[in-house]
Design brief:
By secondary structure, the protein is mainly beta. The chain has one helix at 3-14; strands spanning 24-27, 33-39, 49-54, 57-62, 73-76, 86-87, 92-97, 106-112. A hairpin with a 5-residue loop joins strand 1 (24-27) and strand 2 (33-39).
């Protein structure tokens, strides 16, 4: 199924969706580290969790990230990585975890590759 047909199928089923999951990667100190990821406007119909995987190593699932009044949400990698950012030379994958599925349903939503 193409992205276009999937979009129209979703529009038919849901009618109105307003989101922007364009990843904005936040650098730390030193600037060779990634400390966070911000999505400009997230879905707020449920409290979604996020799984972070770095170079194939699962850092776990967290869910306590507030949604801003404008609808954005920042995923703080320091919560996953014992207070440290992730070196920008590593591959970072972020998955959205659907609530009420026992962490069994998740989809990749962002990926950093240097």
């Amino acid at each position: 199924m193409s992205a276009t047909s999937l979009t129209f199928q979703l529009a038919y089923l849901v009618k109105k969706i307003d989101f922007d999951y364009t990843p904005n990667w936040g650098r730390g100190t030193p600037s060779s580290y990634i400390d966070n990821l911000t999505f400009p406007k997230v879905l707020t119909d449920k409290k979604y969790s996020y799984r972070v995987v770095v170079n194939g190593s699962d850092l776990g699932v967290e869910s306590n990230f507030a949604v801003t009044p404008s609808g954005g949400q920042t995923i703080n990698f320091l919560q996953y990585n014992k207070g440290y950012g992730v070196a920008d030379t590593k591959t970072i994958q972020v998955f959205v975890v659907i609530p009420d599925t026992g962490n069994s349903e998740e989809y990749i939503i962002a990926e950093w590759k240097k």
